[in-house]
Amino acid sequence: MSVTVIKPGMLSSFQDRGRDGFQHEGIPVAGAMDERAHRLANALAGNASDPATLEMTLLGPTLRFDAPACFALAGADLGATLNGEDIPLHRPLVARAGDTLAFGARPAVGVRGYLAVHGGFALPAVMGSEATYLRSGFGGFQGRALAKGDCVPLRAALDGHRLDALRSALWEIQAYLPAPLGGQRRGAIRFLPGMHWEAFSTAARHAFTDAEFRVSAQSDRMGYRLTGPALSMTQPRQMLSEAASFGTVQVPAGGEAIILMADRQTTGGYPKIAQIATVDLSALAQAAPGQSLRFQLIGLDEAQRLDGARERAFVQLQEALAPLRALLSRATRKPL
């Protein structure tokens, strides 16, 4: 039971919610850039837990299912087709053995798409996580991005009998997304003042909230470098390195802000002007190089309220999808 890689795509790697608890040993968290889409794909594929999904960047792969499987797509619309036919996001879908899943039939809307399969991909856990950390070459599938000819095993596959009936039953299941999970495009990315917000000049603070910035071509899973107004402090400061967090906005001496992303380093010593609100990290993860960004200041209470609403929405969705999980459980065969 496996999926075979016909074409690897631009950058396709397996990611979960990250490798927590090891930053003090110099091990980055890694994990999905768009955690909302990762979790959504898993829920819609009938997974109660959160196994690794395949994170695909801009130009997705071409994959052949070597066993029947239920799968779901979320995040960016990368122009997915199954055997040449357009398929939707945010639906549980069925693939037969021999079916080909491909991407690129339409221009990409967004940057990162996520593929989940029911039961998950059979990947070894490294320090409690299946996430790929590409820079050090561990986790995921052999510690690297997918390559042509890879055969990625599945933990479970569908019983090959009566797949048409299963497909019809899955299509009848109503999967309405609660509003906090809809992934609407935002006019501004919300942030909280960073630890050193007050140490930046008044002009720098106004620029960060009022000016337009662009995601530089020198951006990747480790961090987004922004081009725009230079952000300066009231006076130079020597700082001790501190733990680095997803969404922290650091400003090196040159004044160009860098937003730390999923593959961020474990510590950083640059001053921190802002912290992106957790609820907007997914929107940020879908920003492409060259895209313009604006930032909106919010308070801690509002950030916590938004994050709580998102978590309640995931609970609500999982409860609503209980019939989907029961249906797939009856239709799934486990490996011997």
Give short descriptive properties of this protein:
elongated, single chain, Cyclophilin, 8-stranded mixed beta sheet, alpha+beta, 336 residues, 6-stranded antiparallel beta sheet
Please tell me about this protein's structure.
This protein is α+β, with helices and mostly antiparallel strands and 336 residues long. The protein is elongated and about 70 Å long. The protein is 19% helix and 26% strand. Strand 14 (213-215) and strand 15 form a beta hairpin. The longest helix has 21 residues, at 300-320. The strands form five sheets. It has an eight-stranded mixed sheet with strand order 21-14-15-18-17-20-13-22. Strands 7-6-9-4-1-11 form a six-stranded antiparallel sheet, with no helix packed on it. Strands 2-3-10-5-8 form a five-stranded antiparallel sheet. The chain has helices at residues 35-44, 163-172, 202-210, 281-285, 300-320, 322-331, and strands at residues 2-7, 12-15, 53-57, 62-65, 69-77, 81-82, 85-86, 93-95, 100-102, 109-117, 151-153, 157-158, 189-193, 213-215, 223-227, 242-243, 248-250, 258-260, 267-268, 272-276, 292-293, 295-297, 332-333. The protein folds into two domains: 2-175 and 321-333, no CATH class; 189-306, Beta Barrel (Cyclophilin).
